[in-house]
């Protein structure tokens, strides 16, 4: 959809308001709403002014004027606002008309342009599987007189003994994969989410209950090009959260909201194409992958410690990345093996379906930054010929969790903390700077923001510390 089509849609659909959306460095969306009668060609050509000092990771108050430039191709009608509203995603520009270098969406667009400049491929396709929980109640507080969190779900196994009306059919820990109703209580909610996603332009492929107790779910939508997929993921999260709220529930994409059960990941499928020609397929190769695909895998696994600072950028991420909960902490690749960081899907493989699946990321990632960083790591692997087999990254076609201690010792692991990942990013980020996709300023700002989060968590007294140390 172009500018003229959007203006025509505003008129034909009797749109009352237009909502312009931007994303901050952390990955949260923000919006400003303008009456539809005030939106014209000038809005698309000149943009919408806003205060950049109020967004995480953007400018200081002394230099805060910024411009949101609408992308008409992203327009969709908002299903949650009473007045008919059209939502449009924007890129961020400086007042002088130059792109703002910390704009996450701008970084994603630069990554796509860089891909074409390399001559290696024309398009990078991404398909995230973003898992989430639907809770019935969440309470938390952190202050000088106390810290706690409390969640609840009608499906939770801890509610088997709940007094009052209790109909049973609770989901056991690690027992939530694919149960039918009435154990799965959220089918209608997920159906509604999928219907609204389809109406908004996403191509939904499937949905189901996930492994954990207490309402873990997964909805898959079809892959697209890098930036468009990041747009789609933010739209996906927006719809999930608002449908949940409509039904009196709350959705979270936190990687590890529950102690002692599986966390939520964001497995990211990715492939390269040259026009219509898939570049990751070679019949007879390992898992029918081309040498280019193997080099791409090598790049991701080689740079994984640094990459994880962008794909798993929360302290909570590393409560998921521990052995024993299907968490892909092992930096190896394998076909059809979900215990490896990179899995090669082999079911129903066709040339165009040939792809790799990086299973380590989670949905606290800013998708524009995470997808761009994954592409840059993969391209570095191709350019440098980083064959994962020669670098000790596999393939490992056994359940890694069942290996002996000696065998496990030979396998590299993901960083054990956000601080460790940030240290790796400080050492290893030259691959991100290629083509000016990321800048030193963006990387330094990101590291500073994340280190501040680490300090906040580390300096907060934890209820577990009372259990461990109060009586010493």
Written account of the structure:
Residues 104-472 form the GS catalytic domain. Keywords: ATP-binding, Cytoplasm, Ligase, Magnesium, Metal-binding, Nucleotide-binding, Phosphoprotein. Oligomer of 12 subunits arranged in the form of two hexagons. The chain has 472 residues and is α+β, with helices and mostly antiparallel strands. The protein has two domains: 3-100, Glutamine synthetase, N-terminal domain (Ubiquitin-like (UB roll)), CATH 3.10.20; 123-469, Glutamine synthetase/guanido kinase, catalytic domain (Creatine Kinase, Chain A, domain 2). Helices cover 32% and strands 22% of the residues. The chain contains 14 helices and 18 strands. The protein has helices spanning 3-12, 41-46, 104-118, 187-199, 226-246, 291-302, 304-311, 317-320, 367-384, 405-409, 418-427, 430-433, 440-458, 463-469, and strands at 17-23, 29-35, 48-51, 65-70, 76-77, 85-93, 123-135, 137-143, 146-152, 204-209, 216-221, 224-225, 250-252, 266-274, 277-278, 330-335, 340-344, 356-358. Strands 7, 10, 11, 12, 13, 14, 15, 16, 17 and 18 form a ten-stranded mixed beta sheet that branches. Strands 1, 2, 3, 4, 5 and 6 form a six-stranded mixed beta sheet that branches. A hairpin with a 6-residue loop joins β10 (204-209) and β11 (216-221). The chain starts with a helix and ends with a helix. The mean pLDDT is 94.
């Amino acid at each position: 959809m172009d500018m003229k089509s959007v203006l025509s849609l505003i008129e034909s659909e009797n749109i009352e308001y237009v909502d312009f959306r931007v994303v901050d460095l952390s990955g949260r969306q923000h919006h400003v709403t303008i009456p539809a009668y005030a939106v014209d060609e000038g809005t698309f050509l000149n943009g919408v002014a806003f205060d950049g000092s109020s967004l995480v990771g953007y400018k200081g108050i002394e230099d805060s004027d910024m411009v949101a430039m609408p992308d008409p191709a992203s327009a969709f009608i908002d299903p949650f606002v009473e007045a008919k509203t059209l939502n449009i995603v924007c890129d961020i520009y400086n007042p002088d008309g130059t792109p703002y270098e910390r704009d996450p969406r701008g970084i994603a667009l630069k990554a796509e342009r860089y891909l074409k400049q390399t001559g290696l491929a024309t398009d990078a396709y991404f398909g995230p599987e973003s898992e989430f929980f639907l809770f019935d109640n969440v309470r938390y507080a952190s202050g000088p007189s106390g810290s706690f969190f409390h969640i609840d779900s009608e499906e939770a196994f801890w509610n088997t003994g709940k007094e009052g009306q209790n109909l049973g059919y609770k989901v056991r820990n690690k027992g939530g994969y694919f149960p039918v109703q009435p154990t799965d209580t959220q089918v209608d909610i997920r159906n509604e989410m999928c219907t609204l996603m389809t109406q908004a332009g996403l191509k939904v492929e499937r949905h189901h209950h996930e492994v954990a107790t207490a309402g873990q779910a997964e909805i898959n939508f079809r892959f697209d090009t890098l930036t468009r997929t990041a747009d789609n993921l933010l739209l996906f999260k927006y719809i999930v959260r608002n449908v949940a709220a409509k039904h009196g529930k709350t959705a979270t994409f936190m990687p590890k909201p529950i102690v002692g059960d599986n966390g939520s990941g964001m497995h990211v499928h990715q492939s390269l194409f040259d026009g219509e020609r898939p570049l990751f397929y070679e019949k007879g190769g390992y898992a029918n992958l081309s040498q280019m695909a193997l080099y791409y895998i090598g790049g991701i696994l080689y740079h994984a410690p640094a990459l994880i600072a962008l794909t798993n950028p929360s302290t909570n991420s590393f409560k998921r990345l521990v052995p024993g909960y299907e968490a892909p902490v092992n930096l190896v690749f394998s076909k059809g093996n979900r215990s490896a960081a990179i899995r090669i899907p082999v079911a129903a493989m066709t040339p165009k379906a040939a792809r790799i699946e990086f299973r380590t990321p989670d949905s606290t990632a800013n998708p524009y930054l995470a997808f761009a960083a994954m592409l840059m790591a993969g391209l570095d692997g191709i350019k440098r010929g980083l064959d994962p087999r020669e670098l000790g990254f596999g393939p490992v076609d056994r359940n890694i969790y069942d290996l002996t201690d000696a065998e496990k010792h030979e396998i590299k692991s993901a960083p054990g903390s956000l601080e460790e990942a940030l240290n790796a990013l400080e050492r290893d980020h030259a691959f991100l700077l290629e083509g000016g996709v990321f800048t030193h300023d963006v990387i330094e700002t990101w590291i500073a923001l994340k280190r501040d989060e680490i300090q906040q968590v580390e300096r907060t007294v934890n209820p577990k510390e009372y259990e461990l140390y109060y009586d010493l």
